[in-house]
Amino acid sequence: MDDPSITPTEKCRFYLGITLRDDTKARPVPGIMQIPGGRYAVFRHTGSYSSLHKVYRSIYEEWFPKSKYHPQSTFSFEMYMNHPSTTETSELLTEIYIPVIRK
After folding, report:
1. Which stretches make up the AraC effector-binding domain (predicted)?
2. What is the pTM of this model?
3. CATH code of the domain covering residue 50
4. pLDDT class of 19 with cuts at 50, 70, 90
C-alpha cells in the first residue's frame, strides 16, 4: 500500500493474504478481498526479500518507460513461491504482479 522509498518502514502498511478454496470453513474470517482480474505485468525475482525494493525501482524507472504499458492505480501484489525456512536466501523466488493498461 505504501511506498517504502518515501514512507518510514514502521509506517508502511500492507495487505497479507492466502488463497482459500471455495469450501474452506475457517471461522472467523477477518476479511475477504478478491484480487481483480485484468492484465498484469509479471516479474520474477530470485534472491533475498530485502532487495525487492530495488526490483520495484527498476520496474518503475526502467521497464515501464520502455514498455507499451502504464501501471494502473490499483494495488500490485507478490506471490512467494517457496519458503525461507526451507530455501536458501539466494534461491527464494518471488513473483511480482503489477496491474497494467496499454499506453
Report:
1. 1-101
2. 0.83
3. 3.20.80.10
4. confident
